[in-house]
Write a structure and sequence with these properties.
Rossmann fold, 279 residues, 40% helix, two-stranded antiparallel sheet, 7-stranded mixed sheet, alpha/beta, Helicase, Ruva Protein, domain 3, binds S-adenosylmethionine, 12 helices, single chain
C-alpha cells in the first residue's frame, strides 16, 4: 500500500489535526492489529475513521460485512480508490460523523465488532457513544493514546482511576492488546499508542434510566476528585442535596469521608441504588 504521506501529497491534501489524522504508515503494524481481532468471514464489522484504508484493506480481506464510517469528505474518493486497487469492492463506505451514526443500521441484525484507530481528540466521546449503543456491539478493538489507555484500564486507588475508567469497567471487560510506537504513523505523533479490547457484558444490571443515574453519580463523585464524597457530590450539575447524599452514602455502606478514586464499580452501583431509593 502506498505511504499515506505520498497519497496526501499526490492529492494536494494535508493531515488535519482537528480530525486527529495520524495515519498508520506501517503495513505490518496494521495487519498485526487486524489479526489480533480474530475476526472471521462472518464477522459484522464497523470501522471508525478508515482514513486512507490502512486497517480497512486487512479487514475487508477477511469479511465482506464491513461498514467504514469516515467524517472527512476529502478522503472518501481516496479510500474508495485504495479499496478498488486492492480488488475490495464490498466495503460500505459512509461519509458521516461516527458520533451521529446509527450503529443499529450497520449491525444488520448481528452484533458488531467495532475496530478503529481513533481520532484522539474525540476518543472519550466515542467510548461513551459505544457504551450507549452497546446492545449492538459484541466487542471493540480501539487504538488510543497510551496515556488515555492507561486511564481506561486503571483500578480504584490508582493515580489514573477516573470517571471514564469507572463507566467503562461497568459496561465491559477491558484487555490490553498491543502497543504501537509513534514511528508507525504519519504524521508522527508525540505519543505512543495502545490497542485495547472491550468485551461488552451481555447482562445488564440496570435499565436505561437507572444507568443514567449511575453515570450521574460517577460524574458527580469525580467532579471534585480531591474532596470527600460527601462534599464532592453536593450541588453541582445534578443539584444533589447534602442530606440526600449523606443518607445515600450511609445506606450504601460507604464511608462519606472516602474519595471517588477509591470506589470500586460495585460500590458505585450500590451508591446509585441508594440514590435511586432516596428519590
Ligand atoms: N484508520 C486510519 C489509519 O489507521 O491510518 C486513520 C486513523 S486516524 C487516527 C482517524 C481517522 O478518523 C481519520 O481518517 C479521520 O478523518 C477520522 N475521523 C475523525 N473524526 C471522525 C468522526 N467524528 N467520525 C468519523 N471519522 C472521523
Amino acid at each position: 500500500m502506498a505511504h499515506p504521506g505520498q497519497i496526501l501529497k499526490e492529492n494536494r491534501l494535508y493531515a488535519g489535526k482537528e480530525l486527529g489524522q495520524n495515519f498508520l504508515s506501517d503495513p505490518a503494524a496494521a495487519k498485526m492489529i487486524v489479526d489480533k481481532t480474530g475476526i472471521n468471514k462472518d464477522s459484522q464489522v464497523l470501522e471508525i475513521g478508515p482514513g486512507l484504508g490502512a486497517l480497512t484493506v486487512h479487514i475487508a480481506r477477511i469479511t465482506k460485512r464491513l461498514t467504514a464510517v469516515e467524517k472527512d469528505t476529502r478522503l472518501i474518493p481516496l479510500l474508495e480508490r485504495v479499496l478498488e486497487d486492492h480488488g475490495l469492492t464490498c466495503v460500505k463506505v459512509v461519509n458521516k460523523d461516527v458520533l451521529k451514526f446509527d450503529f443499529n443500521q450497520a449491525a444488520a441484525g448481528k452484533k458488531l465488532v467495532v475496530i478503529g484507530n481513533l481520532p484522539y481528540n474525540i476518543s472519550s466521546q466515542i467510548i461513551f457513544k459505544l457504551i450507549k449503543d452497546r446492545a449492538d456491539v459484541a466487542a471493540a478493538f480501539l487504538m488510543f493514546q497510551k496515556e488515555l489507555a492507561a486511564r481506561i484500564v486503571s483500578k480504584p486507588g490508582g493515580r489514573n482511576y477516573s470517571r471514564l475508567a469507572a463507566v467503562v469497567q461497568y459496561a465491559a471487560d477491558v484487555t490490553h492488546i498491543t502497543e504501537i510506537g509513534s514511528s508507525c504513523f504519519f504524521p508522527r505523533p508525540d505519543v505512543d499508542s495502545t490497542v485495547l479490547k472491550f468485551d461488552f457484558f451481555k447482562e445488564r444490571t440496570f435499565d436505561a434510566d437507572q444507568e443514567a443515574v449511575l453515570f450521574n453519580v460517577i460524574k458527580a463523585a469525580f467532579s471534585k476528585r480531591r474532596k470527600s464524597l460527601k462534599n464532592a457530590m453536593v450541588g453541582g450539575e445534578f443539584n444533589y442535596e447534602k442530606s440526600m447524599i449523606a443518607a445515600a452514602l450511609v445506606s450504601a455502606g460507604i464511608d462519606p469521608a472516602r474519595r471517588a478514586e477509591t470506589l470500586t464499580v460495585e460500590e458505585f452501583k450500590a451508591l446509585a441504588r441508594a440514590v435511586l431509593k432516596q428519590n
